[in-house]
Amino acid sequence: MNPSLTEMFRRLLSAAEQTRAAKSVEVFGWLIFVESVILMLAPNFAAELLHLPALVPQGANYLRLVALLVGGVGMLYIVSGRLNAEGFVFASLLDRPLVPPVMAVLWYLGIVPGPLALLFAVQDFGSFLWTLSAWRAESRKPQSMPV
120: Cβ–Cβ under 8 A, 6 or more apart, which residues? Predict the structure, then answer.
């Protein structure tokens, strides 16, 4: 039986018994959520910070659209981490190591500027390593025997 919405919001606010791996997923979610807010509110500042070419108005709006999508993904990571969603944590271990090779290809083809590709690659792979190390440490812990 599924928990009620009230119970889910209570679990979301308290994050009781959150594993270290789930905490790393939550923190990664906050990171990309904050990045999306910056991109949404100040796309020209973000472009300048990443040494991207100056944005035309349409480019700034496309960056805002990307920010909306990134913010949604960030929210998924935050909520899944807070709710200790083991399946999502595992899925993120499959997804995040793919970002560096994809960014390398996009940079090589001239689709994504180098600084942006490098930022995404380092951020995703670094957070992947953190989640993986937390997952492995937790899997090595002795499990308590059921009574």
Answer: 99, 103
pLDDT by residue, tens only, the chain of 147 residues: 788 888 888 888 887 789 999 999 999 999 999 999 999 999 999 888 877 788 898 989 998 999 999 999 999 999 999 999 999 999 999 999 999 999 999 999 998 888 889 989 999 999 999 999 999 999 887 765 554
CB atoms under 10 Å from CB of 85, counted, come to 17
Task: Look at residues 128, 113, 134, 131 and name the one whose alpha carbon lies nearest to residue 51.
Answer: 113
Q: Evaluate whether residue 65 is within a structural domain.
A: yes
State pTM to two decimals: 0.85
In a domain, 146, yes or no: no
Q: Which domain holds residue 56?
A: 18-140
Q: Phi/psi class of residue 112: alpha, beta or left (left: φ > 0; alpha: ψ in -120 to 50)?
A: beta
Count how many domains the chain has.
1
Element (H, E) at 105: helix 99-108
CB 145 within 8 A of CB 117: no
Q: What is the DSSP letter of 98?
A: G
